[in-house]
Design brief:
Helix content: 25-40%
Distance between the termini: 38 Å
CATH superfamily: Ribokinase
Structural class: alpha/beta
CATH topology: UDP-N-acetylmuramoyl-L-alanine:D-glutamate ligase
Number of helices: 10
Order of helices and strands: EEEHEHEEEEHEHEHEHHEEEHHHE
């Protein structure tokens, strides 16, 4: 069974406006509410793909109840820890005139030590776990060490782990030795402390991260595709050119596509191709809606795959 973990999920309250006006009233043309958070989005897309999975994490209050019920209405299975605080609400504003969007993210509720303990007991008690995808920010009261401990514990039981986080959560989390991490170019740049302007820079940074005990590194690079760096090869999947209407949750969809490939026994080429297809298909969906199975599978043959395994000076100059 695939499990996803979102310690700081949210309801994404999404508005569409013609133009943001900072001097006069801005009229909302449309409003939608979606369950959100990295692990939550991964579960939503996995469910769309028909891959059995269960969403784990913390929820609380009326917003937490809404999130859980919205997931149930989408057919997403969940098994949350109910906390005393209120699940956060994020605000997303899409400006129709420019195509830009503004994302306002709340910090989330304070998590008590006994609630963290309840999470550890739940994860330790999972008998059927084969894959665990961990993603997103940490709410107040949760130290990045939590990610490291969970990853190390799950890996010791033979399950595959994937971490999608940034900042200290990523820096400490990789000490647990995850099988995969999926930073974007900016997050990887922050992790290694330097700019990554060329593909060669990205690969070099990913190789350094692997030397810290990470099995393989997936780096999402927007329209430039996703690169996978592992011990026996370096692979690049490039999406087709599409008219992007949304970028929220694209990386989460890519994670879901990759995990779908792993869970269904596809080789790494196909896993990477499905990751790129899933992320690209979600860019065509408005708001924080997510690509469905047909969207993703129709996109798969349009993704270009390249084996770019090279060494030394051969990498210099690659963009």
């Amino acid at each position: 069974m695939i499990y996803t973990l979102a310690l700081n999920p949210a309801i994404d309250r999404t508005f569409w406006v013609e133009k943001l006006d900072f001097e006069e009233t801005t009229r909302v043309q449309k409003e939608c509410r979606y369950p959100g958070g990295k692990g939550i989005d991964v579960s939503r897309v996995l469910t769309n793909l028909g891959a059995p999975n269960t969403a784990l994490g913390f929820i609380g209050g009326f917003v937490g109840d809404e999130l859980e019920c919205r997931l149930t209405s989408e057919g997403v299975r969940s098994d949350f820890i109910h906390i005393s605080g209120e699940t956060r609400t994020n605000i997303i504003v899409h400006e129709e005139e420019t195509g830009r969007h503004v994302l306002l993210t709340a910090s989330g509720p304070e998590i008590a030590p006994y609630e963290i303990g309840a999470l550890f007991r739940k994860i330790d008690g999972l008998k059927d776990i084969s894959i665990l995808a961990i993603g997103g920010s940490l709410p107040p009261g949760v130290h990045p060490e939590t990610y490291r401990r969970i990853i190390a514990g799950v890996r010791a039981r033979g399950a595959i782990t994937l971490l999608d986080a940034d900042g200290d959560a990523l820096r400490v989390g990789i000490q647990g030795g995850p099988d995969y991490i999926k930073p974007n170019r900016r997050e990887l740049s922050q992790l290694v402390g330097r700019e990554l302007n060329e593909l060669a820079d990205v690969v070099e940074a990913a190789e350094w991260v692997r030397s810290q005990g990470v099995g393989a590194v997936l780096v999402s690079m927007g329209a430039d595709g996703i690169v996978l760096v592992k011990d026996d090869g370096i692979y690049l999947a490039i999406p087709p050119k599409v008219e992007v209407v949304n970028t929220v949750g694209v990386g989460d969809s890519a994670v879901a596509g990759f995990l779908y490939g792993l869970a269904t026994g596809l080789d790494l080429k196909e896993c990477l191709t499905h990751a790129t297809a899933a992320g690209t298909a979600t860019t065509l969906k408005p708001g924080t809606a997510r690509a469905n199975r047909k969207d993703i599978l129709d996109m798969v043959p349009r993704v270009r795959f390249e084996d770019i395994s090279r060494s030394g000076d051969q990498w210099k100059g690659l963009k």
